[in-house]
Specification:
Elements (H helix, E strand, L loop, with lengths): L6 H5 L28 H7 L7 H27 L1 H6 L2 H29 L9 H30 L24 H16 L3 H38 L1
């Protein structure tokens, strides 16, 4: 959870008094009319981001790779039970995959932090209000992540459904009464908060990439998980 800019960019940041960035932390960006968007803000942001910087590239790779990895492995497990056979138990296999996912996410966070530190801060983001907004986002994001984990448990959090470890019923209490994917959007809120605290334009860009990648992952995971539970329901009816 970077890049360097010239002195001229740091001394003459673009005027942002007319721009507001709205992030729906629980569902990404919704109902945006892009035809009406003023791109001056995006142009100014671009001046502070070097996409060719190695740390930025590594962070983007980590962001994209992580959900791709765990979705491919989990689907392979669901269709073949290969990991369950290898470890001798679906629970042990799920715990091992979960541990790998945790390590991958730690590396992603580390790579994003390095990318943010490598490139310049943006004076537009250095206000006290923005700093405290970042703190609030991190508190809210952590609340979503922790409460989601407590509600689902380890296997529920780390794709136990794909290992045949199904929950008795759908979790509908907090934080799932706020969003169906609190782990993902809580994590996104944490990254956005960190970017605001660090006044990092690179952090904003990387957070946007995280949100887009998670949105794609959800579009695949949601229907597939529903299919798993429908298969169980159909199987139970036959019995």
């Amino acid at each position: 959870m970077s890049h360097s800019l010239g002195a001229a960019d740091r001394q003459n940041p673009p005027d942002q008094t007319k721009h507001t960035v709205i992030l729906d932390c629980c569902g990404g960006l919704n109902n945006v009319d892009y035809s009406e968007m003023d791109l001056t803000f995006l142009g100014g942001l671009r001046n502070y981001v070097d996409p060719h910087n190695s740390s930025f590239v590594l962070a983007v790779i980590a962001i994209i790779f992580n959900p791709l990895f765990w979705n491919l492995v989990a689907r392979w497990e669901h269709h073949t039970r290969g990991l369950s056979r290898l470890f001798g138990s679906p629970y042990l296999a799920c715990y091992c995959l979960g541990f790998v996912i945790i390590l991958l996410n730690l590396y992603r966070s580390h790579s994003m932090t390095v990318a943010m530190k490598t490139q310049t801060r943006w004076t537009v983001l250095e206000g006290t209000e923005i700093f405290y907004a970042g703190v609030a986002l991190m508190v809210f994001g952590t609340l979503l992540v922790v409460s989601s984990f407590l509600a689902l448990g380890f296997t529920g959090t780390f794709l136990g459904d794909y290992f045949g470890i199904l929950m008795d019923e759908k979790v509908t209490g907090f934080p799932f009464n706020i969003t169906e994917n609190p782990m993902y959007w809580g994590s996104t809120a944490n990254y956005l908060g960190l970017a605001l605290i660090g006044a990092s334009p690179v952090g904003l860009v990387l957070t946007a990439i995280v949100a887009m990648v998670y949105s794609v992952a959800i579009s695949f995971e949601g229907p597939f998980t529903e299919q798993i539970y429908e298969e169980r329901k159909h199987h139970n009816k036959q019995e």
